[in-house]
Design brief:
The complex is a heterodimer.
Chain A: H1 7-14, H2 23-54, H3 59-74, H4 77-90, E1 99-101, E2 104-106, H5 108-134, H6 138-146, H7 151-181, H8 193-204, H9 207-240, H10 248-253, H11 262-265
Antiparallel strand pairs in A: 1-2
Helix pairs in contact in A: 1-9, 2-3, 2-5, 2-7, 2-8, 3-5, 4-5, 5-7, 6-7, 7-9, 8-9
Chain B: E1 15-26, E2 29-40, E3 44-48, H1 55-62, E4 70-75, E5 78-79, E6 82-85, E7 88-91, H2 94-102, E8 104-107, H3 119-129, H4 135-148, H5 164-176, E9 182-186, H6 194-208, E10 212-216, H7 220-226, E11 229-234, E12 237-242, H8 244-249, H9 254-263
Parallel strand pairs in B: 3-10, 3-11, 8-9, 9-10
Antiparallel strand pairs in B: 1-2, 1-4, 4-5, 6-7, 11-12
Classes of the chains: A mainly alpha, B alpha/beta.
Chain lengths: 266, 265
Amino acid sequence: MMYHFDWGVFWNYLWPPSALQGPLIRTCLVVTIAVSIVAQALGVVFGLFAALGKTSKFAPFRIIADAYIWYFRGTPLLVQMALLFFGFGVMHIYDFPDIIFGDLKISGAIQAGALALAINEGAYMAEIVRAGIEAIEPGQMEAAKSLGMTYGLAMRRIVLPQAAKVIVPPLGNEFNNMMKTTSLMEIISANELFYAYNQVNARIFKPFELFIAVSIYYLAMTTVWSFIQARIEASLGERKGIEKAPGMLERIFGGGPRTSPTMGAH
Amino acid sequence: MSQPSFAPNGNDGSIVVKAEKVNKYFGSLHVLKDVSLTVRKNETVIVIGPSGSGKSTFLRCINHLEKINSGHIYVNGHLIGYLDRNGKLVEDSEKNIARQRAEIGMVFQRFNLFPHLTALENIIEAPMRVRKTPQDAATADGERLLARVGLADKRDKYPSQLSGGQQQRVAIARALAMKPSLMLFDEPTSALDPEMIGEVLDVMKELAHEVTMVVVSHEMGFARAAANRIVFMDSGTIIEDTTPDDLFANPREERTKQFLSKILH
């Protein structure tokens, strides 16, 4: 028997009033965006430290950074997330209690999910940051040192600002991935977008309509981000003479090197 | 600030650089062999020699951009880069090394200006961050230095908007902004187009009267005009150390003669 696409359900859960204004989906959309930003920002910080560790002259730092990158790139993010949330809870290493700020409640699952995303992202960002640092001519560090700057000051003021230009385009792609990868938090029942649609599906069983609807939300987020990314890169390029950034169509439909699919690479 | 001061014998305060039996290896390659050199206040010493003779490496040892395997290098009586622990050299802390480098200006072959900063910002960065000079004072000083190297109108240009000669003049101003007691020049004109060499040498000639300088360069015209001494290095050793006129008139060693015949035309 033919399955009939239920347009009513589709529209209902794609656009207000019933879907977006439904507290579950609205909250979950906000959570997805917020977690993406927080996890990416933390990921950059972790990646920066890992990259500095990897390029350090001090062997223990190198070993710690290598081990971190090895583990978190060598195991699935889904497993890391489950280990962090369920495993740490069972072992009473950390239970991820809910954090409450006034009306705002951040569930343990969201904290664990965001942290796992950030730590995993850091292992990928480490390579991007390291490549950015290594793209800067060694003469820059030497000139800075010859002026009496310490390594840390020279890194902060001279090398990293230049490396940032190299890092921004791949960082934008990482963030695009991050927004989609937040959906893995469904496994630990964090209130994110995919979880919300899954909950609705459990109630009304319309997987085709619902999962197309949710995919449109992800598509909207990544598309909006593509525009923002293009603007950022264009403004960087103008000032610093970077190569012309890829055009909008190329960015959305691909054409350059492929970014890794969510489940596969991360 | 407690700088270890192991003033070598006979330092009457006029000795700026004193290198004693400096040895350096790159792996198994012995690049500096018992190199000793003394540079007095306001002297300009030119170091020449074939490529691979160790002249640039030696220069880079003076501000500890390169480590040394044995020997001592003193600048203004301070042992550079190391602490002497009963005759054993232990590398000094990063902070102390940075402090020592702040007193030693360096100009590089490839300029190494900071491309994300304007000419003026390049100059005031270290005074502000290292010396903690307030921005207005650093800016006034930076503008004065830019004027001095003839680039007052380029203060807000980025390095990519300047010619090679202009970049090198900004790099000299940047080094001078730290008010160093010693300036090191590592082949400052060899990456420049011929028509830009003169403008950089003119700035250096003027400086030669006021600052102690060690210059690795093959610019013989500059050597004649500005150098008090000329040092010829080959295979990691100093072969001759004399005045430019003396070296050109009667080089003592065969290797010196051969080398001079190649660079003097």
